[in-house]
Description:
The structure is a single chain. The chain is α/β, with parallel strands linked by helices. The protein has helices spanning 15-27, 38-48, 64-73, 89-97, 110-125, 158-169, 177-185, 194-207, and strands spanning 7-11, 31-35, 52-56, 80-84, 102-105, 133-135, 138-141, 146-149, 152-153, 175-176, 213-216, 220-223. A hairpin with a 3-residue loop joins strand 11 (213-216) and strand 12.
Amino acid sequence: MTESRGLVLIVEDERHISDVQRLYLTREGFGVHVEADGAAGLAAVRRMHPVAIVLDIGLPGMDGIAFCRALRDAGDWTPVLLVTARGEEADRILGLELGADDYLTKPFSPRELVARVKTVLRRAAGPPGPPPASGGRLSVDPVSRTVRRDGEPVELTATEFNLLAHLLRHAGQVFTREQLLAQVWGYAGYRDTRMVDVFVSQVRAKLGDASPIRTVRGVGYSATAPGP
């Protein structure tokens, strides 16, 4: 019997969609629990502690945006994969700003869903390696996956942490958005580079003037090593 990869919570009100998601995730060794509305989904998170959440934005009652806000406000950083309709770009960006880790736009292949869930879980585990930064106002430790600014802890999502750690590990090197999508997100050839800008903005907002991330106009982003 194959060992389970962990429980994935699906919050989706369209039964035919959640049935397909359940089927493909189960085939890959995940346990799956489905809820059809946001309030029930939040209760399931607290009860079951899933390894990842597949969250539809257009839910009845508490929608996916409110769900994500409530989850992060409660200090729960379980990886969230948003599922959105094509016309929901503003909601998609807002969801990322509220702490979602990734998104898929309907219609999508169920195989792509499984691949994305695996990817957000790999990002949550984080890359091995020595601490990429320590000193001055900022300290980043990839072993404990903690960030401190002026000695105070800063809460980052798994993706935000990995982006910051990657840039610091290669301090001074300039990365294009496409390179960051490939190396941090694991998405080679992915066209929606705006996602990188959203996550950079979020990291900067949380770190304030201690942020080491710099914009290189016409190219992408770089990071400066923190001073002593």
